[in-house]
Amino acid sequence: NQLQALNDSLFHASDSINNGVRKRKGAASEIDDLVNYDAVDSLVFSMDTGRVELYNEAIISYEDITLQAGYIRYDMSISEVFATGIPDSTGKIIQKPVFKQGKDSYNLDTIRYNFKTQRAFIKHVVTEAEGGFLHSNETKRQKNGYIHIKDGIYTTCNADHPHFGVVITKGISMPNDKIVSGPVYLTVADIPLPIGLPFSFFPNSRTKTSGILLPQYGEEERRGFYMRDGGYYFALNDYFDLRLTGDVYSNGTWGLRGASSYKLRYKFNGSVNLQFFQNISGYKAIESDYSKSKDYSISWTHAQAREANPNRSFRASVNLSSSTYDKNQTQRIENIVNSTKQSSISYTKSWPNSPFNLSASLNHSQNNSNNSVNMTLPKVAFNMGRINPFERKKAVGPKRWYEDIQLSYTSLLENRIKTTDTMLFTSSVWDDMTNGFRHEIPLSLNIKPFKKSAALQTFTITPNVSYKGMIYSKQKEYYISGYDEDNAAVIEDTLYNKLSYAHAYLPRVSAGISPKIYGNFEFLGDGRLEAVRHVMTPSASFSYVPDMTAIQPDYYRDLYDSVNNEVIKTYSIYEDEIYGTPTFNGASGSVSLSLRNTLEAKVRAKNDTIDKVEKVKLLDNVNLSTSYNIFNRDTLSPSWTISLTSLLKLNF
Questions:
Q1: Fewer beta carbons within 10 angstroms: which end of the chain, N or C?
Q2: For 57-76, what is the mean pLDDT?
Q3: Own/partner pairs for 577-580, CB < 8 Å, 24+ apart?
C-alpha cells in the first residue's frame, strides 16, 4: 500500500517531486518519523530493491537532519542514504553535499549515512571550529556526534584548498568541546615544515566561558619589553560580557583596559571600550629627559534594531581620546594619520497621528593637530509641524480665508563647550561654556489675490506674526574705566549667573512674484537639433519688519561718554549669546530681484532608426540676483551664477 501511494504521488507530480515515506515502528529499517525528499529534475524509484534516486538539487530530511546534494540515493530497506555532487557541462563537480543536523553544518564531497545507526562515512569534509576551518579527507561520524579524522588540516584560511595550517594525521573532533589529535605538523603552500608535536589540543566551543586571558609578550624600542592584553574574561550571561586586561612595559609604562559587548535580539546591540595609560618617557636618573603623561580613550557604539520601536530610536557612536593616545598606544596606521574624531549620541521620538516630535543629542568633535575639543551637551529640540488651527473639521460651503492660516512651533536647547583635551575633565571647562534656550511660534497666511490671472497668479502676499523667546544665563556689559589723552578706555565685562528671559513680537509682511517666460525656436531640416527652448524666471520679493521698540522690551544699550558728550557705541546685552538678540534695533526691510535662465534643446537620437527625441540642457541655472536694504543704502549686493551641465551631450 505504501509503495502504491508513493507511485500515485509520483504519477501526479509535475515540475518537482516532494514525497515522503514513513516506516512502521518495528519494521526492518526502524524509521520512526517521516522521511521527506525532493528533486528538481527527476526521481527514479525501484520497486524491487526499494531504492529512490534523486537528481539535481536533491534534498532529503529526517527529524533534525537535512541533506542537500546534486545526487542522492536512498535505500529504504537498510535506512541508508548516499549523496554526491553532479558534473556540469564542463565536467566540474557542482552541488556537492551539505549535511546539517541541528546547528551543525558540514560541506562534503561524498557521504554515506545510516538513519538507523546515525553513523556516517564521509569523503573530504569541511567544518568551522572556533574561528577556523577543519578539513578532513576521510571522516567517520559516530552516533554521539564525535567525528574521527584521518589526514586532516586545521587552518584559519577560508580557501577551498588551504594555503597553510596544522596537519592532523588522525584525531577526534568533539562538537562544542574540543579537537584532540595525534601527531601534527605545520604546512605552508603544501610544503611540510620541520615543526611538529606528538599530540595537540584545539578548543571547539560555541559557548562563552569565563577564564584567564594570557598576555602577549614582546619588545619595543621606545618602551622596552612588554606584556599586553593579559587579564580575565567574564562570561556574565547570554546578553552581556566583560573583559578586563592590562599592559605592562619594562620602562614603567602601564595601562588598563575594560571592554564589554552586549546584545538583546530584536532590541539593540553595542560595545563599550575604556582605556587608560600612564606613559613614562626617558630615565628617572636624568631629570631633563624624564616625564610622565596620561592617555585615555573612550569608545561606545550602540544600535537599536529597526523593528524594536518604529516611533522611538536611540543610537550612539562615541570616539573620544586624548590627542596623544593614537600616537602612543594605537597599532593601526589609519588612526595615527586621522587627526579628527567625532562622536554622537542621539535620541528621537515621534507621536503617531500627531505633529509633535522630539530629538536630543550629545555631540563631540576634536582636532588632535591643535588639541581643540568642541562639544554640545546636550542639544534638545521639540517641534510641532505646521497645522491649520482654524480649519473646519466638517466643511460646509466654500473654504474660508482664515482656514489657510498656518501655525507651528519650534524650540531648541543647547549647551556648547569649547576647550582643549587637557582641560576637558577639569572645572575650568565650564568657564567658557555658552548655553541658551529658544522657542518660536510663527503664525502665517499665504494670500494669492490674482488667482484668475495667468500673468499674476504667482503673486503672493504673506503676512506673518511670530513670537520669539530666549533664555540666557549671561549678559554683556561695557563701561568706561578712564581716559587716555581724552580717549575713553572701554572695558568689556560679562555678567555670569544672570538668568534672564528675552522675548519679542515680530510682525512681518512679505510679497513676491515669480512668473515664467518661455521662448521656443524650431529648426527645420534633417539635422539632429530639432528645437531650442529658453525659459526665463524673473522674481521680485519685498519684506518689511516695522520698528517695535516702543511696545516691547529694549535689549540695546548706549555707552555714553559724558566727557566728550557722545555715544561711543550701541550694543546688545545678548550680542555674544548663541541665538543673538530677539529684537531688531529699529525697522528692517529689503527688496530682492533675481533672474533665472535655462536653455534646453530637443535632439534626435544618434544612429537610431526610430524618430526618438531626447531633451538636453545646454545652460542650467544662469542666475542674476541683487538685494537692497531699504533702511541702508550701502547694502546693494548683486551676484550671478552660471552652470554648464550638459553642453557636451550634443556630440555633433
A1: N
A2: 87
A3: 577/434, 577/436, 577/470, 577/472, 577/474, 578/414, 578/416, 578/434, 578/435, 578/436, 579/436, 579/438, 579/470
- 81, 97 contact by CB (below 8 A): no
Query: Among candidates 287, 574, 276, 577, which has minimal Cα distance to 425?
Result: 276
Query: What is residue 473's DSSP assignment?
Result: S
Looking at the predicted structure, is the pLDDT value of residue 646 above 70? no
**Rounded to an integer, what distance in angstroms lies between the CA atom of residue 533 and that of residue 176?**
74
Q: How many CB atoms lie within 10 A of CB 648?
A: 8
Whole-angstrom Cα distance, residue 133 to residue 121?
19
Cα distance between residue 541 and residue 590, in whole Å: 8
Q: Which residue has the higher pLDDT, 309 or 483?
A: 309
What is the number of alpha carbons within 13 Å of residue 529 lying toward its C-beta? 15
Three-class SS state of 116? coil
pLDDT in tens, 248-258: 998 889 999 99
Strand-pairing partners, residue 65, are 62, 101
Q: Is the pLDDT of residue 160 over 90?
A: no
Residue 95 has pLDDT above 80, yes or no: yes
Strand partners, 345: 316, 362
Closest of 30, 22, 26, 24 to residue 6, by C-alpha: 22
* Full DSSP string of 409-439: EEEEEEEEEEEEGGGTTSGGGGTT-EEEEEE
Q: How far, in Å, are 60, 81, 438 from residue 219 at the CA level?
A: 57, 57, 57
pLDDT tens digits, residue range 493-547? 777 778 899 998 889 999 999 988 889 888 877 777 888 999 999 999 999 988 8
> What is the C-alpha separation between 548 and 554, in angstroms, rounded?
9
CB 534 within 8 A of CB 599: yes
- Residues written for the chain: 652
Q: What is the mean pLDDT of the chain?
A: 82
From the list 46, 45, 51, 74, the residue with the least C-alpha distance to 61 is 74
